[in-house]
Specification:
Elements lengths: L1 H53 L3 H15 L2 E6 L4 E4 L14 H9 L3 E4 L3 E10 L2 E10 L1 H51 L13 H51 L4 H25 L7 E2 L1 H18 L4 E5 L5 E2 L2 H18 L4 E8 L3 E7 L22 H10 L3 E6 L5 E7 L5
Parallel strand pairs: 7-9
Antiparallel strand pairs: 1-2, 1-5, 3-4, 4-5, 6-8, 9-10, 10-12, 11-12
Helix pairs in contact: 1-2, 1-4, 4-5, 5-6, 6-8, 7-8, 8-9
Length: 432
């Protein structure tokens, strides 16, 4: 935000300086040129007055002009109305009688008034004068070096002011950016702490009404989430107690049946189901809590550790559960969430599928890891077949989809027809 504010401010100030500075530079140059020509015109007028009083002969006229040229460093040229040179004080004077019809002389002849002109290297003013009763044209020329120097100095001053303005705008933008960005950065920090499960975090106030409104809303949300989490924890503790009590009683009854001589395989299967139910309760209660740090999960080991119970259930139906696990990178997710996802997929395959169930774990490009559950059943009915996309619905799949998406993965129904294949795709964890 600070960079964007700085960039936009400097861009706006830069455009304003260009729009104002260029016309100002042109106007200053024109004004200085006009001032220099006015000085020359005043010199012409003064020279005319001197000639009118002192020039009694052509020689006296030439002497006066030479004296003025040496004193002022300018070039004086006296021409007749036809444009022929009468007197010239230049370093390389034009010979008398030569024609010198410069633009200012032409204008002065046609208008019978003073005319100014700027050439490539000179400034000149020509004006009709009367010397010894004869109508002539007096031209005064000077180098424009001094004018160019003044223009450059003026332009440098304008550029200096522009740079100062840009610097002041940059400082103002940095100050304003810090004033606006700091409250938002603090709000972002509070939001991150809230996202990490710290519901006691409170957003600081900055004095900016808009940011303070967001901070107040964030504090209200934190308080509500904290209260909801506390109620959820209380409910989880109560539910855990209420569920574990009958499970403990069931386990004792099963042990009593085993002692009484009940069929050992049936008792073992019932005990396995009891263990699985207790593990499911533990996982669901774990999922109700906010994440506690990061977990690295090996999907192959996770699947292998959970297949015993499912193999027992499959054998009771005359079916098999096989595992095909290739070496793959771990994934960063909660083991409880992935365990519940696998349970949903296996439940779905046992209840609605047929034949052998194959659980496969393989690395995929991305890099990622794919956990797939396939069976040999008829697949999903046409009116219940979910699309092969992350938004898959179907029997029991919405729960698995929400759990895996919360861990940064996707659920795909790769084949909804006979021999249905449902898979979980998770990005591989990058480990140092």
């Amino acid at each position: 935000m600070r960079r964007r504010l700085l960039g936009s401010t400097l861009a706006a100030v830069g455009v304003a300086l260009v729009l104002l500075g260029l016309p100002l530079a042109v106007a200053v140059r024109a004004s200085l040129t006009r001032s220099a020509l006015d000085v020359l015109q005043a010199e012409v007028e003064q020279t005319e007055a001197v000639l009118a009083q002192e020039a009694s002969s052509p020689a006296a006229t030439a002497a006066i002009l030479e004296f003025l040229a040496e004193r002022g460093g300018r070039r004086y040229t006296l021409l007749d109305r036809a444009g022929r040179v009468v007197v010239d004080t230049g370093a390389q004077p034009a010979p008398p009688g030569a024609t010198a019809l410069t633009p200012d002389v032409e204008l002065s002849r046609s208008r019978l008034s003073a005319a100014a002109h700027r050439g490539p290297t000179t400034l000149a003013v020509a004006m009709p004068v009367a010397v010894g009763g004869a109508g002539l044209i007096l031209r005064v020329a000077d180098s424009d070096a001094a004018l160019d120097r003044q223009v450059r100095q003026a332009w440098l001053a304008i550029a200096g002011l522009a740079v100062s303005a840009l610097g002041a705008a940059a400082l103002l933008a940095l100050w304003q950016g810090r004033r606006l960005a700091s409250p938002l950065e603090e709000l972002a920090g509070s939001a991150r702490r809230l996202g990490d499960g710290d519901f006691s975090a409170r957003a600081p106030r900055s004095g900016l009404p808009e940011a303070d409104e967001v901070a107040a809303a964030l504090d209200t949300t934190a308080a509500r989430l904290g209260a909801m989490l506390e109620r959820s924890r209380s409910f989880g503790a109560d539910a855990s107690h209420q569920l574990r009590t009958p499970l403990t009683a069931l386990r004792l009854d099963l042990e009593a049946l085993e002692v009484a001589g009940a069929d050992p395989p049936l008792v073992a299967a019932a005990m396995a189901e009891t263990d699985r139910l207790e593990a499911t309760i533990d996982e669901l209660l774990t999922l109700a809590e906010p994440p506690r740090g990061e977990e690295l999960v090996d999907l192959g080991r996770l699947a292998a550790a959970r297949l015993d119970a499912w193999q027992s259930l499959a054998r009771s139906q005359g079916r098999r559960v096989l595992l095909d696990a290739a070496p793959a990178a771990p994934v960063r997710a909660r083991a409880a969430a992935l365990g519940q996802c696998l349970q949903v997929l296996l439940d779905n395959a046992l209840e609605h599928g047929a034949g052998t169930i194959t659980v496969s774990v393989h690395p995929v490009p991305g890099p990622g890891v794919r956990l797939a559950v396939a069976d040999e059943g008829p697949g999903f009915p046409p009116d219940d077949a979910p699309a092969p996309a992350p938004s898959a619905g179907g029997r029991g799949l919405p729960l698995a989809r929400s759990l895996v998406e919360a861990e940064g993965g996707r659920l795909l129904v790769e084949r909804p027809e006979r021999g249905a294949v449902v898979s979980l795709l998770l990005p591989a964890a990058v480990t140092a």
